[in-house]
Specification:
The protein is an alpha/beta fold. The protein folds into two domains: 196 residues, Nitrogenase molybdenum iron protein domain (Rossmann fold); 140 residues, 3-Layer(aba) Sandwich (Rossmann fold), CATH 3.40.50. 33% of the residues lie in helices and 14% in strands. The strands form three sheets. The chain has a five-stranded parallel β-sheet. α3 links the parallel β3 and β4. α7 packs antiparallel against α8, α8 runs parallel beside α13 and α9 crosses α13. The relative contact order is 0.16.
């Protein structure tokens, strides 16, 4: 869940670019010779929802018009939330970015065999990407001027850009990205089922948490990493997806830094709702309940965090109210990752 460098780059750099609307024409894609991998989750094995075959016209997340003669079947996906989304829609990508990272940090939807790894998310191997013969490439961007979009548009394969985060409505944006990918792949009927299940899951969780007598409903979720031998803490503030989930469950965010475009300089970035501090900075939340990521990797920041006397002296730690989420609950994921996060909150808050 930490993956600090990628999130910092996305939030601090891309959100500073103004949105510009551009258009792209209809693209006819010839049928490729090889079959796409099959989605293998039990939900997809049992799925009976219909797949549309109608032409598609979409205004994507950065205002571009994307037109397809038919819904995409062979998608290449260059960001983890969107990889998860495609799999939840029972559309197995033919190519994705950073397989090893995805399999470490995202447990909601396992990748099937046969998916091509095209390298890093920001700088994919274009030869490997196009050799997989996608009929749609799904990327994450905050502007139509994104360099990756411009690079990909030089080839005759449509590019669909989705906005990975929106601090004004993080849950709504998560749903919108999912629905956009569903529209592009003809899987809107499946998307409606999944989103209805998400809403029902959240509603049931709200009732469970409301019934619990907590010493405080203030909370903070955070993750972190090691930098220069020191623990860096990344609090999730206003606008963060996991903060919004906690608030939906009746909790109150204890991180009070205001939105500041200069991420890491005392504020909360406007897209992802993330801040940056050190272990001592956690004292600012007082008695709040603490939730944090621990992906159980060899370089996990948690090993050093737990050695700190500042950490062990925090009220939530001393009272047993500082608990990790299970490994692999991705903090910028789709509906299923968010259901995992909801379950983690509920399991911790209702534990006897």
């Amino acid at each position: 869940m930490t993956r600090a460098p990628r999130l910092i780059l996305t939030a601090a750099t891309l959100t500073a670019v103004a949105l510009t609307a551009v258009g792209c024409g209809t693209t006819t894609v010839e049928s490729p010779s090889g079959a796409a991998p099959a989605a293998t989750s039990q939900a997809c094995v049992d799925d009976t929802t219909a797949t549309s075959t109608d032409p598609v016209t979409i205004t994507d997340g950065v205002g571009r018009t994307v037109e397809l003669d038919r819904p995409a079947e062979r998608v290449a996906v260059l960001e983890w939330q969107q990889i998860e989304d495609a799999l939840t829609l029972c559309v197995a990508p033919v190519a994705v970015s950073d397989v090893a990272g995805y399999e470490t940090y995202v447990q909601a939807e396992p990748l099937p065999e046969g998916v091509v790894d095209v390298g890093t998310r920001g700088e994919p191997d274009l030869d490997a990407l196009y050799a997989a013969e996608p009929d749609l490439i799904i990327v994450e961007a905050f502007s139509a001027d994104d360099e990756l979009i411009a690079q990909l548009e030089r080839r005759d394969v449509p590019v669909l850009a989705t906005v990975g985060a929106d601090g004004a409505d993080p849950i709504g944006n998560m749903k919108h990205v999912f629905s956009t990918i569903a529209e592009a792949t003809g899987r809107t009927e499946r998307a409606d089922v999944v989103l209805d299940e998400f809403d029902e899951h959240l509603a049931a969780a709200q009732q469970e948490v409301a019934a619990v007598d907590l010493p405080t409903r203030d909370f903070l979720f955070f993750d972190g990493w090691i930098e220069g031998g020191n623990v860096v803490i990344r609090p999730y503030g206003q606008g963060a997806l996991f903060t919004a989930l906690g608030e939906e469950l009746g909790l109150t965010s204890a991180w009070t830094d205001e939105i500041n475009d200069a991420y890491g300089d005392g504020g909360v970035d406007p897209a992802y709702g993330l801040a940056q501090t050190d272990i001592e900075g956690l004292t600012a939340v007082g008695e709040a309940n603490l939730f944090y990521s621990n992906d159980d990797t060899p370089d996990s920041y948690v090993t050093e965090l737990e050695k700190s006397p500042i950490w062990t002296a925090l009220p939530a730690v001393a009272d047993g109210r500082a608990q990790p989420f299970p490994a692999g609950v991705w903090g910028a994921g789709g509906p299923l990752s968010n259901q995992q996060a909801i379950d983690a909150y509920v399991d911790i808050l209702t534990a006897k």
